[in-house]
Amino acid sequence: MSKYESLIAAARSAREHAHAPFSNFRVGAAVRAKSGRIFSGCNVENSTYGLTLCAERVAIFKAISEGERGFDAVAVVTDTDTLTPPCGACRQILWEFCGDVEIVLVNPRGKTETHRLKDLFPKPFDVSYL
Ligand code: THU
To answer: What residues contact residue 101 under an 8 Å CB cut-off, 6+ apart?
Structure first.
C-alpha cells in the first residue's frame, strides 16, 4: 500500500462533489495532518467566476477551521493526462500552512507525480519577511 493511498482516495472521492458547471474542470484535493487526519475538498465555482475556490484551498481551510496545524502531504486529483499542479494562489496558501510539503498529483488512470512545494514555489513570501 502506497504511503499516499488513503490521501489519494480522499481527494478522488472529494472530486465527485466538485461544483464546476462553468469550467467542467473537476478537481479533488486532500491534505494530511501530522495527527493523521485527512481533510478533503473539491473546487467550488461561482457564477461571478472570480469567487471560485480551488479544491486545495477548500481542503486546507477545512483542516485549519477544525483546529489542525502541521501537514505532511497534499494530493490533487484531476482527470487529465498532464497532471494538474496547484495554482499560484493555492501555492501561497499551502506554503503558509504546510511549508515545504510533498504535493502528490494524480489522475484516475494511476499516473502520479510527487513534487516538493519549494520546487513549485521557489521564493515564497511568508511571515519571515514581516
Ligand atoms: N482548480 C482547482 O481547484 N485547483 C487547481 O489546482 C487548479 C484549478 C479549479 C478552479 C476552477 O474551478 C477550475 O479548476 C478551472 O480553473
So the answer is: 71, 72, 73, 74, 94, 116, 117
